[in-house]
Amino acid sequence: MSLIVQKYGGTSVGNPGRIKNVAARVKRFREEGNQVVVVVSAMSGVTDGLIKLAREVHAAPDDREMDMLLATGEQTTIALTAMALHGMGVKAVSLTGAQAGIVTDGVHTKAKIANITPKRIHELLKEGNVVIVAGFQGADEAGHITTLGRGGSDLTAIALAAAIKADLCEIYTDVDGVYTADPRVVKAARKLEEISYDEMLELASLGAKVMQSRSVEFAKKFKVVFSVRSSMNDNPGTIVKEETRKMEDVVIRGVSADKNQAKVTITQVPDKPGVAARIFKAIADAHVNVDMIVQNVSASGHTDMTFTVGKDDLPKARKVIEALAKEVGATGFACTEGIAKLSVVGIGMRSHTGVAADLFEALAAEKINIQMISTSEIKISVIIDLAHADRAVNAVHKKFGLG
Amino acid sequence: MSLIVQKYGGTSVGNPGRIKNVAARVKRFREEGNQVVVVVSAMSGVTDGLIKLAREVHAAPDDREMDMLLATGEQTTIALTAMALHGMGVKAVSLTGAQAGIVTDGVHTKAKIANITPKRIHELLKEGNVVIVAGFQGADEAGHITTLGRGGSDLTAIALAAAIKADLCEIYTDVDGVYTADPRVVKAARKLEEISYDEMLELASLGAKVMQSRSVEFAKKFKVVFSVRSSMNDNPGTIVKEETRKMEDVVIRGVSADKNQAKVTITQVPDKPGVAARIFKAIADAHVNVDMIVQNVSASGHTDMTFTVGKDDLPKARKVIEALAKEVGATGFACTEGIAKLSVVGIGMRSHTGVAADLFEALAAEKINIQMISTSEIKISVIIDLAHADRAVNAVHKKFGLG
To answer: Whole-prediction pTM value?
Structure first.
């Protein structure tokens, strides 16, 4: 008998029929003698509908009230999921985030989980219930309802798995698992059996879109082994866990392309202490997330500084730099769209040489120019022309023998 | 400065525009220097939509999960109402029933309020907030979400008014107040300035439909003075309170007709102890609510027994009596639809004579036959042919000078 946490996303519980499918799956696990805790999201479309309603009464609704409103989405799903299980003869009880003992800080719409008191969950499991917990939500110390922000339901599942010491945590989604590359782009892409937290983190932040980084970070911190799998079939999915020695034998775990990038170059920035700080402080104050930053050694006391941001953030970034470029003594600046970031990720990189060379060779063979390069311990990223992105991913995927 | 509780029903908060109207009204009261606690129902249609969803996953959903589901309706409205107030520059905070300190028993879908701890409401009021409380819901001692059943939001408002010792409790609805008769039937019907709890109770149970009896009973028990008024205009409404000496001068407060009645007569029932008990126990076991019961003195040890039930319950009642009539020694039974119950209500009746005579005269003058008569301390009810109901109400209304 295992204690299992399963998380089902909004698409998996998108209508009554799908909720029944989820219930049938849960029932199977239960009948195999397992104890099951189910975390569910709001039915797909519900959260957007609530946001629309809110906007109709206030253009910029208060965060606390937004949480009060949005929390009803998951509360609806847990009740329906419990009912569906009852309909199949399975004992089940639903719990809101607060009832499940999920205590967060008081930062509405993006709360952090402070602690979990799973007493009630344990009691209900002991009585033979499947426990259905509302994802994405909790309550702060004062009892205000909070939500965890993007990817919050994954976080709920992983945090609960840690708190109740689950044997297994399954993240059900609409993809089969984590692939060596986006299967829509690379036909030879292969589903990974397993991947380390760090690799998953690099991929999560790279547009693999399977999960938000914070959930993976949380899992890494509390050593929660979890699998990513599809709620539409019985394929085994990908297991995400601490790295093993065996994992290091694989140099590159996967290759991804983030097509949602834009580039800002500030030319001839005086190369002296405090200039970079000033620029990026201003960018941060405008709530723009900077991804890559590249600065080369300076010639004659000046240097070009380039950074990338999400395409949507480019107007905000442009505004900041427009105001600041002259001020810091730069000669000018340029904003470029139409770029993509290609990355190869793998913990094996640490103990293998020549990865960068192989990557550059693969691109050169395709006559694809590299605009920027940035490396971390387990990742190499290059900025290339957006038009070449898919071709580049295929070439690199093949070069590293990922198929 | 007064402390006011205002309750707005589902129609009053039926869409974002109406929620803004409610907010505008609340703002006015607030700007006059009052402290305001607002109780809201689910937006009209929302509860029905949720029930429909539930039925799609389970034909007979569990009561606890139904409460979990339905409670989201009011939670949505409180958040939107708070946002609308913010939009008008009014400080406001929403609270679920549980957060507002409303503790109920554990009887899901028809919980009773056990106690209210209004500490949080007082704190929020003190900080200058309008406090928006979700009607219809609470939580039991163990923290399970409960709902109060039909008319639950009125009950929330009145119970809160009692708990926080409000100076005024206003029940906003889609009618202007309590009338001497249904204005759609009697053109001369007049809105009452005030009415006693007992009179309101008799009217509430008579199809006046303004409020459920339990809310009025609660108000009577805790001496909560409240007014019933429209959220669509600024008319003053009707004040419901303890009877005053002045009220007794008015013999009849109002006249109503309940057209939703059916009649069951059991003929020649043996007139001996235990027979009536047996019949009405069986009826109660079938969850049929009996309204009037009439039994006359017996002749030759047998008597006819007649009772009325809601029209919808007639098939169930028929089934019970079919099985039971022979068993108790009756010679037969008859079920009749097409009847109406006309009632006159007034606490003045207690100290005035001749009310029954006046009522019967009014009907006789219209050649309307009386099929059954039943009286209580402050009410006389007669069963008449449904076809004559409207004409009868007009005649009686005129006879007692209610116009």
So the answer is: 0.86
